[in-house]
Amino acid sequence: MDYNARMDYTELSGKSVLLLGKTRSLSEEEFTRLLRLHGIEWVRMPAFEVALALEGRMMNPYEQAESARLYAEGNIAVEALEPLEAWLCRSIEPNRLLMSLKLSKDQERLVDFLANPYITDELFFKLLGLYDWQNEGLFDNDRNRDVTAAIIGRFYADPEKNHNVQYAMSGLAHLIERYGTHELIGAVAALSPIAKELDFPVDRSVAGILDAMALHPRTPLDVLRKLLLSRAALLARREPLLLETELMGRGDVDELLARNPTLSAEGRAVLMERFPDCIARNALLSGELFEKLRGAFATELAANPSLDDAMQDTLMDTDDTAVLQSLAANPSLVLRHAAALMDAGRYDEFLASNPSLPGGFLERLYGSDDPKVHGHLAANPATPIELLYQLSLDRRFERAVKTNPAFGRHIQTHNIGWH
Protein backbone atom coordinates (compact mmCIF):
# COMPACT_ATOMS: atom_id res chain seq x y z
CA MET A 1 0.00 0.00 0.00
CA ASP A 2 1.27 3.51 -0.87
CA TYR A 3 0.91 5.14 2.54
CA ASN A 4 2.42 8.42 1.34
CA ALA A 5 -0.49 8.93 -1.04
CA ARG A 6 -3.41 7.17 0.61
CA MET A 7 -3.12 6.88 4.36
CA ASP A 8 -5.77 8.60 6.47
CA TYR A 9 -3.81 9.82 9.51
CA THR A 10 -6.98 10.29 11.53
CA GLU A 11 -6.98 6.47 11.84
CA LEU A 12 -3.91 6.81 14.08
CA SER A 13 -5.93 8.40 16.88
CA GLY A 14 -5.45 6.40 20.11
CA LYS A 15 -2.36 4.68 18.68
CA SER A 16 1.41 5.10 18.74
CA VAL A 17 3.94 5.61 15.95
CA LEU A 18 7.63 4.79 15.85
CA LEU A 19 9.99 7.67 14.99
CA LEU A 20 13.31 6.67 13.41
CA GLY A 21 15.73 9.60 13.21
CA LYS A 22 14.85 13.20 13.94
CA THR A 23 11.90 15.40 13.08
CA ARG A 24 12.27 17.61 10.00
CA SER A 25 9.96 20.62 9.73
CA LEU A 26 8.77 20.61 13.33
CA SER A 27 10.73 20.69 16.55
CA GLU A 28 10.40 17.55 18.61
CA GLU A 29 8.36 19.46 21.17
CA GLU A 30 5.98 20.85 18.51
CA PHE A 31 5.71 17.44 16.87
CA THR A 32 4.68 15.93 20.20
CA ARG A 33 2.20 18.71 20.91
CA LEU A 34 0.48 18.42 17.53
CA LEU A 35 0.33 14.63 17.64
CA ARG A 36 -1.35 14.71 21.02
CA LEU A 37 -4.00 17.09 19.71
CA HIS A 38 -4.98 14.17 17.46
CA GLY A 39 -4.64 11.54 20.20
CA ILE A 40 -1.40 10.11 18.82
CA GLU A 41 1.79 9.27 20.76
CA TRP A 42 5.24 8.50 19.41
CA VAL A 43 7.98 6.21 20.67
CA ARG A 44 11.65 5.60 19.94
CA MET A 45 11.70 1.84 20.43
CA PRO A 46 9.52 -0.54 18.38
CA ALA A 47 6.61 -2.02 20.23
CA PHE A 48 3.84 -4.44 19.35
CA GLU A 49 1.17 -1.74 19.44
CA VAL A 50 2.99 0.65 17.06
CA ALA A 51 0.73 1.39 14.08
CA LEU A 52 3.27 3.05 11.82
CA ALA A 53 7.02 3.61 11.52
CA LEU A 54 8.30 7.00 10.34
CA GLU A 55 11.67 7.69 8.71
CA GLY A 56 12.99 11.12 9.71
CA ARG A 57 16.32 12.80 9.11
CA MET A 58 19.73 11.74 10.40
CA MET A 59 18.87 8.12 11.19
CA ASN A 60 21.70 6.40 13.02
CA PRO A 61 22.94 2.95 11.91
CA TYR A 62 20.70 1.18 14.42
CA GLU A 63 17.63 3.05 13.17
CA GLN A 64 18.55 2.33 9.55
CA ALA A 65 18.85 -1.35 10.36
CA GLU A 66 15.50 -1.27 12.17
CA SER A 67 13.88 0.39 9.16
CA ALA A 68 15.28 -2.28 6.86
CA ARG A 69 14.00 -5.01 9.17
CA LEU A 70 10.49 -3.53 9.28
CA TYR A 71 10.45 -3.23 5.50
CA ALA A 72 11.51 -6.84 5.14
CA GLU A 73 8.95 -8.18 7.63
CA GLY A 74 6.11 -6.07 6.23
CA ASN A 75 4.08 -6.19 9.44
CA ILE A 76 4.27 -2.45 10.08
CA ALA A 77 4.02 0.21 7.40
CA VAL A 78 7.17 2.34 7.03
CA GLU A 79 6.60 5.86 5.75
CA ALA A 80 8.60 9.05 5.27
CA LEU A 81 7.99 11.54 8.04
CA GLU A 82 7.23 14.55 5.79
CA PRO A 83 3.63 13.65 4.82
CA LEU A 84 2.62 13.29 8.48
CA GLU A 85 4.31 16.59 9.39
CA ALA A 86 2.54 18.28 6.49
CA TRP A 87 -0.81 16.88 7.65
CA LEU A 88 -0.17 18.04 11.21
CA CYS A 89 0.67 21.55 10.01
CA ARG A 90 -2.42 21.75 7.81
CA SER A 91 -4.53 20.80 10.79
CA ILE A 92 -3.29 23.69 12.94
CA GLU A 93 -6.00 26.04 14.19
CA PRO A 94 -4.51 29.43 13.16
CA ASN A 95 -6.24 31.55 15.77
CA ARG A 96 -5.30 29.17 18.56
CA LEU A 97 -1.66 29.18 17.48
CA LEU A 98 -1.56 32.97 17.13
CA MET A 99 -3.07 33.46 20.57
CA SER A 100 -0.66 30.97 22.08
CA LEU A 101 2.33 32.76 20.57
CA LYS A 102 1.06 36.18 21.62
CA LEU A 103 0.60 35.06 25.21
CA SER A 104 3.84 33.10 25.47
CA LYS A 105 5.97 35.54 23.44
CA ASP A 106 8.01 32.49 22.49
CA GLN A 107 10.10 33.87 19.64
CA GLU A 108 12.04 30.64 19.11
CA ARG A 109 8.82 28.72 18.55
CA LEU A 110 7.61 31.48 16.24
CA VAL A 111 10.80 31.33 14.15
CA ASP A 112 10.43 27.55 13.87
CA PHE A 113 6.97 28.01 12.38
CA LEU A 114 8.19 30.71 10.00
CA ALA A 115 10.75 28.24 8.66
CA ASN A 116 8.06 25.56 8.24
CA PRO A 117 7.15 25.01 4.56
CA TYR A 118 3.83 23.30 5.36
CA ILE A 119 1.93 26.17 6.96
CA THR A 120 -0.22 28.27 4.64
CA ASP A 121 0.96 31.59 3.26
CA GLU A 122 -1.92 33.28 5.06
CA LEU A 123 -0.75 31.93 8.40
CA PHE A 124 2.86 32.71 7.54
CA PHE A 125 2.09 36.40 7.00
CA LYS A 126 0.14 36.57 10.27
CA LEU A 127 3.00 34.95 12.15
CA LEU A 128 5.50 37.28 10.52
CA GLY A 129 3.62 40.21 11.99
CA LEU A 130 4.31 38.83 15.49
CA TYR A 131 8.06 38.67 15.11
CA ASP A 132 10.10 41.11 17.23
CA TRP A 133 13.05 42.46 15.24
CA GLN A 134 14.43 44.06 18.43
CA ASN A 135 15.03 47.39 16.65
CA GLU A 136 17.77 45.78 14.60
CA GLY A 137 18.28 45.18 10.90
CA LEU A 138 17.38 42.22 8.73
CA PHE A 139 20.77 40.55 9.23
CA ASP A 140 21.98 42.21 12.43
CA ASN A 141 21.59 39.09 14.59
CA ASP A 142 21.24 35.37 13.98
CA ARG A 143 17.52 35.20 14.62
CA ASN A 144 16.73 38.14 12.32
CA ARG A 145 18.89 36.54 9.68
CA ASP A 146 16.98 33.27 10.02
CA VAL A 147 13.63 35.03 9.63
CA THR A 148 14.84 36.98 6.59
CA ALA A 149 16.12 33.74 5.08
CA ALA A 150 12.77 32.07 5.80
CA ILE A 151 10.90 34.79 3.89
CA ILE A 152 13.17 34.48 0.87
CA GLY A 153 13.31 30.69 0.97
CA ARG A 154 9.54 30.35 1.15
CA PHE A 155 8.70 32.48 -1.90
CA TYR A 156 11.81 32.24 -4.07
CA ALA A 157 11.44 29.49 -6.66
CA ASP A 158 14.33 27.00 -6.57
CA PRO A 159 16.52 28.89 -4.05
CA GLU A 160 19.00 25.99 -4.18
CA LYS A 161 19.90 27.11 -7.72
CA ASN A 162 20.92 30.47 -6.25
CA HIS A 163 22.03 29.27 -2.85
CA ASN A 164 23.34 32.65 -1.69
CA VAL A 165 20.09 34.52 -2.25
CA GLN A 166 18.64 33.68 1.18
CA TYR A 167 21.58 35.22 3.01
CA ALA A 168 22.50 38.07 0.65
CA MET A 169 21.72 41.68 1.55
CA SER A 170 20.11 41.99 -1.88
CA GLY A 171 18.02 38.84 -1.40
CA LEU A 172 14.73 40.52 -0.45
CA ALA A 173 15.05 43.06 -3.27
CA HIS A 174 15.68 40.23 -5.73
CA LEU A 175 12.71 38.31 -4.32
CA ILE A 176 10.38 41.29 -4.81
CA GLU A 177 11.61 41.93 -8.34
CA ARG A 178 11.05 38.33 -9.46
CA TYR A 179 8.24 36.99 -7.30
CA GLY A 180 6.53 40.00 -5.76
CA THR A 181 2.80 39.81 -5.05
CA HIS A 182 0.48 42.30 -3.38
CA GLU A 183 0.56 40.28 -0.15
CA LEU A 184 4.30 39.61 -0.13
CA ILE A 185 5.32 43.21 -0.84
CA GLY A 186 2.86 44.49 1.76
CA ALA A 187 4.27 42.08 4.32
CA VAL A 188 7.88 43.06 3.57
CA ALA A 189 7.00 46.76 3.78
CA ALA A 190 5.49 46.13 7.24
CA LEU A 191 8.68 44.57 8.64
CA SER A 192 10.00 47.03 11.18
CA PRO A 193 13.53 47.24 9.63
CA ILE A 194 11.81 48.27 6.37
CA ALA A 195 8.81 50.21 7.66
CA LYS A 196 10.97 52.72 9.52
CA GLU A 197 12.95 53.41 6.34
CA LEU A 198 10.06 54.07 3.93
CA ASP A 199 9.81 57.83 4.48
CA PHE A 200 13.36 58.83 5.39
CA PRO A 201 15.77 55.95 4.68
CA VAL A 202 18.96 55.88 6.68
CA ASP A 203 20.02 52.24 6.35
CA ARG A 204 21.66 51.85 2.95
CA SER A 205 21.24 48.09 3.07
CA VAL A 206 17.49 48.42 2.45
CA ALA A 207 17.82 50.85 -0.48
CA GLY A 208 17.48 48.07 -3.05
CA ILE A 209 14.32 46.80 -1.35
CA LEU A 210 12.74 50.27 -1.46
CA ASP A 211 13.70 50.62 -5.13
CA ALA A 212 12.15 47.26 -5.98
CA MET A 213 8.92 48.15 -4.19
CA ALA A 214 8.73 51.56 -5.87
CA LEU A 215 8.88 50.00 -9.34
CA HIS A 216 6.97 46.75 -8.89
CA PRO A 217 3.50 46.74 -10.52
CA ARG A 218 1.93 44.88 -7.57
CA THR A 219 3.10 47.12 -4.76
CA PRO A 220 0.10 48.19 -2.63
CA LEU A 221 -0.97 51.80 -3.06
CA ASP A 222 -0.53 52.59 0.63
CA VAL A 223 3.11 51.48 0.41
CA LEU A 224 3.68 53.65 -2.67
CA ARG A 225 2.32 56.66 -0.80
CA LYS A 226 4.86 56.08 1.96
CA LEU A 227 7.62 56.05 -0.66
CA LEU A 228 6.68 59.45 -2.11
CA LEU A 229 9.32 61.29 -0.11
CA SER A 230 12.24 58.96 -0.70
CA ARG A 231 11.52 57.35 -4.10
CA ALA A 232 9.67 60.00 -6.13
CA ALA A 233 11.99 59.64 -9.12
CA LEU A 234 11.30 55.90 -9.36
CA LEU A 235 7.57 56.35 -8.82
CA ALA A 236 7.55 58.82 -11.73
CA ARG A 237 8.90 56.03 -13.97
CA ARG A 238 6.29 53.43 -13.04
CA GLU A 239 4.10 52.01 -15.79
CA PRO A 240 1.21 52.34 -15.34
CA LEU A 241 1.80 55.62 -13.55
CA LEU A 242 0.14 55.96 -10.15
CA LEU A 243 0.01 58.92 -7.75
CA GLU A 244 0.38 61.25 -10.73
CA THR A 245 -1.30 64.18 -8.98
CA GLU A 246 0.90 63.87 -5.91
CA LEU A 247 4.05 63.58 -8.00
CA MET A 248 3.23 66.58 -10.19
CA GLY A 249 2.60 68.61 -7.10
CA ARG A 250 6.24 68.19 -6.09
CA GLY A 251 7.72 69.87 -9.16
CA ASP A 252 11.08 68.04 -9.01
CA VAL A 253 10.15 65.01 -11.13
CA ASP A 254 8.20 66.73 -13.92
CA GLU A 255 10.68 65.79 -16.66
CA LEU A 256 10.54 62.13 -15.61
CA LEU A 257 6.75 62.30 -15.68
CA ALA A 258 6.88 63.79 -19.18
CA ARG A 259 8.92 60.74 -20.27
CA ASN A 260 6.35 58.31 -18.87
CA PRO A 261 4.20 56.86 -21.69
CA THR A 262 1.32 56.29 -19.27
CA LEU A 263 1.10 59.95 -18.26
CA SER A 264 -2.53 61.08 -18.47
CA ALA A 265 -3.80 63.51 -21.13
CA GLU A 266 -4.29 66.05 -18.36
CA GLY A 267 -0.71 65.57 -17.24
CA ARG A 268 0.60 65.98 -20.79
CA ALA A 269 -1.32 69.23 -21.15
CA VAL A 270 0.39 70.59 -18.04
CA LEU A 271 3.89 69.50 -19.03
CA MET A 272 3.74 70.02 -22.80
CA GLU A 273 5.04 73.58 -22.74
CA ARG A 274 8.18 72.74 -20.75
CA PHE A 275 8.97 69.25 -22.06
CA PRO A 276 7.52 68.88 -25.57
CA ASP A 277 10.49 66.79 -26.75
CA CYS A 278 9.93 64.25 -23.93
CA ILE A 279 6.23 64.08 -24.72
CA ALA A 280 6.94 63.57 -28.43
CA ARG A 281 9.38 60.71 -27.78
CA ASN A 282 7.43 58.85 -25.12
CA ALA A 283 3.69 59.65 -25.08
CA LEU A 284 1.08 57.19 -26.26
CA LEU A 285 0.34 58.97 -29.53
CA SER A 286 -3.02 59.89 -30.91
CA GLY A 287 -3.45 61.32 -34.41
CA GLU A 288 -4.15 64.75 -32.96
CA LEU A 289 -1.06 64.73 -30.74
CA PHE A 290 1.11 63.49 -33.61
CA GLU A 291 -0.01 66.32 -35.90
CA LYS A 292 0.51 68.85 -33.14
CA LEU A 293 4.12 67.82 -32.59
CA ARG A 294 5.46 66.68 -35.96
CA GLY A 295 6.36 70.13 -37.22
CA ALA A 296 8.99 70.90 -34.58
CA PHE A 297 9.62 67.47 -33.03
CA ALA A 298 9.59 65.00 -35.92
CA THR A 299 12.92 63.44 -34.87
CA GLU A 300 11.61 62.74 -31.38
CA LEU A 301 8.33 61.40 -32.77
CA ALA A 302 10.25 59.04 -35.03
CA ALA A 303 11.68 57.34 -31.90
CA ASN A 304 8.26 56.92 -30.27
CA PRO A 305 7.39 53.19 -30.06
CA SER A 306 3.64 53.90 -30.28
CA LEU A 307 3.85 55.13 -33.89
CA ASP A 308 1.21 53.46 -36.06
CA ASP A 309 1.58 52.66 -39.79
CA ALA A 310 0.03 55.92 -40.96
CA MET A 311 2.32 57.99 -38.76
CA GLN A 312 5.33 56.07 -40.06
CA ASP A 313 4.15 56.67 -43.65
CA THR A 314 4.11 60.39 -42.94
CA LEU A 315 7.60 60.38 -41.47
CA MET A 316 9.01 58.26 -44.31
CA ASP A 317 8.01 61.00 -46.77
CA THR A 318 10.55 63.39 -45.23
CA ASP A 319 14.08 63.85 -46.50
CA ASP A 320 15.32 64.69 -43.01
CA THR A 321 18.20 62.33 -42.27
CA ALA A 322 17.87 62.64 -38.48
CA VAL A 323 14.19 61.70 -38.62
CA LEU A 324 14.87 58.62 -40.77
CA GLN A 325 17.78 57.55 -38.56
CA SER A 326 15.53 57.74 -35.53
CA LEU A 327 12.80 55.82 -37.32
CA ALA A 328 15.24 53.09 -38.42
CA ALA A 329 16.07 52.31 -34.80
CA ASN A 330 12.43 52.37 -33.64
CA PRO A 331 11.25 48.92 -32.45
CA SER A 332 7.79 49.58 -33.93
CA LEU A 333 9.19 50.05 -37.46
CA VAL A 334 7.09 48.12 -39.98
CA LEU A 335 8.93 45.72 -42.28
CA ARG A 336 8.17 47.55 -45.54
CA HIS A 337 9.78 50.68 -44.15
CA ALA A 338 12.70 48.67 -42.78
CA ALA A 339 13.25 47.21 -46.25
CA ALA A 340 13.10 50.66 -47.86
CA LEU A 341 15.58 52.11 -45.38
CA MET A 342 17.91 49.17 -45.88
CA ASP A 343 17.77 49.57 -49.66
CA ALA A 344 18.65 53.25 -49.21
CA GLY A 345 21.98 52.08 -47.73
CA ARG A 346 22.42 55.06 -45.41
CA TYR A 347 20.74 53.79 -42.25
CA ASP A 348 22.40 50.42 -41.60
CA GLU A 349 23.96 51.54 -38.32
CA PHE A 350 20.54 52.44 -36.91
CA LEU A 351 18.75 49.41 -38.34
CA ALA A 352 21.39 47.18 -36.75
CA SER A 353 20.37 48.42 -33.29
CA ASN A 354 16.64 47.74 -33.86
CA PRO A 355 15.59 44.83 -31.59
CA SER A 356 12.45 44.04 -33.60
CA LEU A 357 14.11 43.41 -36.97
CA PRO A 358 13.83 39.79 -38.22
CA GLY A 359 16.95 37.66 -38.37
CA GLY A 360 17.07 37.80 -42.15
CA PHE A 361 17.43 41.58 -42.12
CA LEU A 362 20.14 41.40 -39.47
CA GLU A 363 22.02 38.76 -41.45
CA ARG A 364 22.07 41.12 -44.43
CA LEU A 365 23.43 43.87 -42.21
CA TYR A 366 26.16 41.52 -40.97
CA GLY A 367 27.57 41.61 -44.51
CA SER A 368 28.47 45.26 -43.99
CA ASP A 369 32.10 46.31 -43.59
CA ASP A 370 31.14 49.12 -41.22
CA PRO A 371 32.40 48.39 -37.65
CA LYS A 372 29.62 50.61 -36.27
CA VAL A 373 27.06 48.27 -37.82
CA HIS A 374 28.81 45.23 -36.34
CA GLY A 375 29.01 46.94 -32.95
CA HIS A 376 25.24 47.50 -32.89
CA LEU A 377 24.60 43.92 -34.06
CA ALA A 378 26.79 42.60 -31.24
CA ALA A 379 24.61 44.38 -28.68
CA ASN A 380 21.25 43.67 -30.35
CA PRO A 381 19.29 40.90 -28.54
CA ALA A 382 17.56 40.03 -31.84
CA THR A 383 20.82 39.18 -33.64
CA PRO A 384 20.92 35.42 -34.42
CA ILE A 385 23.12 33.44 -32.04
CA GLU A 386 25.31 32.20 -34.89
CA LEU A 387 26.19 35.78 -35.79
CA LEU A 388 26.88 36.65 -32.17
CA TYR A 389 29.39 33.79 -31.99
CA GLN A 390 31.13 35.17 -35.09
CA LEU A 391 31.12 38.72 -33.74
CA SER A 392 32.56 37.55 -30.41
CA LEU A 393 35.72 36.45 -32.24
CA ASP A 394 36.51 40.10 -32.97
CA ARG A 395 37.98 41.71 -29.86
CA ARG A 396 36.27 45.00 -30.74
CA PHE A 397 32.85 43.42 -30.22
CA GLU A 398 33.60 40.67 -27.69
CA ARG A 399 32.42 42.69 -24.70
CA ALA A 400 29.18 43.76 -26.41
CA VAL A 401 28.37 40.12 -27.20
CA LYS A 402 29.12 38.93 -23.68
CA THR A 403 26.84 41.59 -22.18
CA ASN A 404 24.09 40.92 -24.73
CA PRO A 405 21.20 39.51 -22.64
CA ALA A 406 20.09 37.15 -25.41
CA PHE A 407 23.58 35.66 -25.64
CA GLY A 408 23.72 35.32 -21.85
CA ARG A 409 20.43 33.41 -21.80
CA HIS A 410 21.68 31.15 -24.59
CA ILE A 411 24.86 30.32 -22.72
CA GLN A 412 22.96 29.55 -19.50
CA THR A 413 20.44 27.39 -21.32
CA HIS A 414 23.02 25.38 -23.19
CA ASN A 415 25.53 25.33 -20.30
CA ILE A 416 28.56 25.35 -22.56
CA GLY A 417 30.97 26.87 -20.07
CA TRP A 418 31.48 30.22 -21.81
CA HIS A 419 34.12 32.35 -20.10
Summarize the structure in words:
Mean pLDDT is 93; it is low at 1-5. With 419 residues, this protein is mainly alpha-helical. Helix 3 (61-73) links the parallel strand 3 (50-55) and strand 4. The chain is built from 29 helices and four strands. The protein has a four-stranded parallel beta sheet with strand order 2-1-3-4.
Keyword list:
single chain; 419 residues; mainly alpha; four-stranded parallel beta sheet; 29 helices; 4 strands
Describe the structure concisely for a colleague.
With 419 residues, this protein is mostly helical.
* Spatial order of strands in the largest sheet: 2-1-3-4
Distance between the termini: 51 Å
Note poorly predicted spans.
1-5
If helices are DSSP runs of H or I spanning 4 or more residues, what is the number of helices?
29
Please, what is the average pLDDT?
Answer: 93
The portion of residues forming beta strands comes to under 5%
Question: How would a textbook summarize the main sheet?
Answer: 4 strands, parallel
Total number of beta strands: 4
Gross geometry: elongated
